[in-house]
Amino acid sequence: MNLTNIGTVRDILSRHGFNFSKGLGQNFIINPDICPKIAEYGNAKEGYGVLEIGTGIGVLTKELAMRADRVAAVEIDSRLLPILDETLADFDNVKIYNEDVMKADLHGIIEREFSGLRCAVCANLPYYITSPVIMLLLESRLPIDSITVMVQKEAAQRLCAKVGTRDCGAITVGVNYYGTVRQLFGVSRGSFMPAPNVDSAVIRIDLNKEHQLSAEQEKFFFRVVKAGFSQRRKTMANSVASLMGADKQTVYSVLTEMGLPEAARIEQLTMEQLISFSMKLMEHNG
Ligand code: SAM
């Protein structure tokens, strides 16, 4: 079954009485060039189990299942299950979990499904939760080699920005702490059904860095980073003090100790400075 043929897709959807949910970010890929490329760039190959997030009608799932040893996919919309039964009928190496990815036990899924295999994540992410999903994948310390995902073009720019520049966000710090990121290729809005209002890009994050901090330090570090970037136009003394319940004077003294101005804003700090700032603040907080 050709899942990038518009006639075929329309036929399956109408036979199952399926209507797209905008709220769930349902824009399905209909450009035949995209999914094979995501699968190939994304480590879908022998010896690998691939975790997919959001199957839609299975257009990417199928490409992953053709190449990897096993595929486990988390899809929140139960209306897609009978469709997937039909579109993935030829594959016995795919397991669908009808769950919300933000609540699913991803460690458990990987352990159960991918025993003895290396693991990678591939997805055309639902855009409304792009950053939370990527942060979840990173912060959960899952045993994965890479995350290859389609995201909106603006999100790709933020993900691939340099830490310490205006384009940087909490997610940029996240990917740079855990690994390295690069943009693979752009995808025009016409490649989807229905077409979204913006273009997209596929990025790949390689989780290739040793963790510099303990689990507890890491948690504190990302609380600081998220607090700082959620009010990026404010000075760090204001954003971090108000959102983390820290004393403003303490933030000032940490900044001074580091040779930074009291009016420093979070987007001005390099990766090393962010880590050092957070660890000093953690010490001061006892
Ligand atoms: N992979 C398909 C494709 O490329 O055509 C579908 C991609 S579509 C952009 C996003 C998919 O994620 C939809 O199938 C949607 O139902 C699903 N989804 C949305 N929110 C989700 C969540 N919280 N957990 C799991 N799946 C979710």
Q: What share of the residues does DSSP label as strand, in percent?
A: 15-25%
Low-confidence stretches: none
Annotation field: number of helices: 12
User: In total, how many beta strands?
Assistant: 9
Strand arrangement within the widest β-sheet reads 4-3-2-5-6-9-7
Q: Please identify the structural class as seen in this structure.
A: alpha/beta
The topology string of helices and strands comes to HEHEHEHEHEHEHHEEEHHHH
The CATH homologous superfamily of the largest domain: Vaccinia Virus protein VP39
Describe this structure in words.
- It is a single chain.
- The chain is an alpha/beta fold and 286 residues long.
- It has two domains: 6-206, Rossmann fold; 215-285, Helicase, Ruva Protein, domain 3, CATH 1.10.8.
- It contains twelve helices and nine strands.
- The strands form two sheets. Strands 4-3-2-5-6-9-7 form a seven-stranded mixed beta sheet, sandwiched between helices. It has a two-stranded antiparallel ribbon with strand order 1-8.
- Helix 6 runs parallel beside helix 8 (170-178).
- It starts with 5 loop residues before the first helix and ends with a helix.
Secondary structure layout plus pairing:
Blueprint: H1 6-15, E1 28-29, H2 34-41, E2 48-53, H3 59-67, E3 70-74, H4 81-87, E4 94-97, H5 106-113, E5 118-124, H6 130-139, E6 146-152, H7 153-159, H8 170-178, E7 180-187, E8 192-193, E9 200-206, H9 215-230, H10 236-244, H11 248-257, H12 271-284
Helix pairs in contact: 2-3, 6-8, 9-10, 9-12, 10-11, 11-12
Bound molecules: S-adenosylmethionine.
